[in-house]
Write a structure and sequence with these properties.
- Helix content is 97%, strand content 0%.
- It is mainly α.
- It has one domain.
- It is rod-shaped.
- The termini are far apart.
Amino acid sequence: MERFELIIILSLLAGLMFVLGWVGSLVQTKFFQKTDDQKIIKRLNRQINKAQHHHEELLAHLTQQEQYWQEEIEKLKAENNDYLKTHRFYQDKIFELEQKLRDSGY
């Protein structure tokens, strides 16, 4: 009888160890999965923050460039207007001189 009881007790202990090992592996898997997920989330958040910072820098740079080019365009428009005025002035002078030449008989 003792031998039979010992076999039953050892079988129950082996079953209990199996169940405890199985539960432990489930708990460990869930714990490490959460840890891995948290690491992935942290890494993604860092990448998002870097991308946002880079985006802000690019936006500031492009805004600065846009302002610079708008100023350059305004300068060129003013220069162009000056050239057009000068061109018209000289065209009028040439027309007057040609008219005088025609009137004088040339």
